[in-house]
Known about the structure:
This protein is mainly α. Helix content is 59%, strand content 0%. It has 6 helices and no strands.
Amino acid sequence: MVSMKGLLVLILFASVVCVYSHHHHLEEKNLTDEQRKKIRDEVEECITESKVDKKLLDDIKDGKDFTPTRELDCFSACVLKKNGVMKEDGTIDQDKPSTNDKVKECRKLAGADACETGGKVMECFAKNNLIPKF
């Protein structure tokens, strides 16, 4: 099970997908209980699939310096796929319209595979303050 701090950072990762998909900033108060549960379930599935180190997720939440790992990149790709931002082939869905230029730039990023692409997109979202703060 993930710690509360870890869960928060995971929800932030998952929530950025909603921001990307819906073109507006998401606030926790706008989430229904059902949406929160769905995000938590998807995050738990992605932790299991990617084998990401939960301590790494806690360090990210705490603002500590960290070195991205393959597992973190694969976690990001998993979250993006589960929310329909990344296609099953590992490419980002370019058909979703956006009025945010930073989102447009981030979704153009690509890596050698789905995991690398996921890591690049999430890093871009984070650097451009596109991950909502709860």
